[in-house]
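Office hours follow-up: a student asked to see two folded examples consecutively, so here they are.
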Amino acid sequence: MNMTATQTKKFAEELRKNMPRAKWCETLICVPACNLSVALKAFKDLRISVGAENVHDAPQGAYTGEISAEMLTDLGVKYVIVGHSERRQYFGETDAMVNRKVHAVLSAGMNPIICVGESLKQREAELTEDWISLQVKAAFHGVTPERVRRCIVAYEPLWAIGTGRTAQPEQAQAVCCHIRAVLRGLYGARVARSVTIQYGGSMNPGNAAELLSQPDIDGGLIGGASLQPDQFLAIIHAANQN
């Protein structure tokens, strides 16, 4: 819940000054629903896709204040964050709700960014892999192999979100590797390799390059660092690795 429509437009203007001309990594910015129209126009010529931060699983109905997948696709949105830790923590989203949202997003022709992650207590109790397995299997329940290829999984350890703490590269790699192993068990190696897996725990210009160099970390789900154009651009540079 950051930036007004006016601030979003100004943010795009700042990015435009220093955005590389060459084709770099795929870049996506997810904004609040009220900023989507402005963002779609502002980022159009910057090779930046626009996504939504949330969606309701129902196609329509008496859900005042919510936004449906069809509403998003009609605007031109291609990506939606599903099951972010803050949605789970503050708004009570369950694994079953996340699964329904995944199906709604895929049925609308969009791409879900499915968030999973463990708490500090779960990590200290050595439950990380069990918890992540449960979340991944629940989120992908009923999703066909053809549709899995359109999914992105973001590993966001709850203990490293908004705290300034970051998982060590080997810790993040271990969990992302486990996520791919779970997908491999569900869909086979070829499909598992096609899924983009991101790390989303306080990634910043100082640690992005090392995190993104890990074999199973294909990208980053950037939080606070994405609000400053210079920091966001530095992470984009870090992601452009051979």
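And the second, which I mentioned at the end of office hours:
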Amino acid sequence: MLAKRIIPCLDVKDGQTVKGVNFVNFREAGDPVALGKKYSDDGADELVYLDITASHEGRKTFIDLVRRVAENVSIPFTVGGGINQVEDVEKLLNAGADKISINSAALRNPDLIDGIARRFGNQVCVTAIDARMEGNEWVCYINGGRVSTGRRLLEWAHEAQERGAGEILFTSMDHDGVKTGFANDALAMLHDTLSIPVIASGGAGDYDHFYDVFTQGKADAALAASIFHFNEIPINELKEYLCKRNITVRL
């Protein structure tokens, strides 16, 4: 069995790591390079850096920060935010990123997934999906959760896979930052629908939530932010806890 991955997520705004609740009310959490190095040293499997206002503000992602992260961490990291064309991906990979994450741009122009996968390989392309429940349906949002697209989660995730996405990073906007557990029902549906790995995001609050997301949610990886940024759960202790409960992780 492949090891389950623990992935700290660093949302970056104005050069600082920030964390919000339900995509609003942000507070600063520290220097993104220093935090990334700490997580790398503490046993994280990967990192995700998201320039969370790039799409909304129409900016390109932060190349200089990517270079500094690459110089300081020893684990793979993914970068997202403001990536609108294949040439943007090349610059980020050349700066040291291992994978890129596209969200708003992919929904606006799904051909972008095909182009990235053809040029760099499926493993480079992570399609991130922000969604929330509307009635009985999970609906996808863009622009940092500001704009509803009307697209249904499972339909869009399946299309992204068919176009060449190597992974799906699913964030439940309803669960984001509230620390009551992941959206395990939706995650299990994604797992059962797709053949590519699913990364769970939104809702981590305690050790049990990670056990639940790997068992009930069937996730391949779990992403979290504030519980790591504010030292609520040390990564090495989380992995030891999971190992004791027979979840395969890299120690």
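Two things to take away from it. Residues 20-27, 55-59 have pLDDT under 50 and may be disordered. Residues 32-42 form the longest helix (11 residues).
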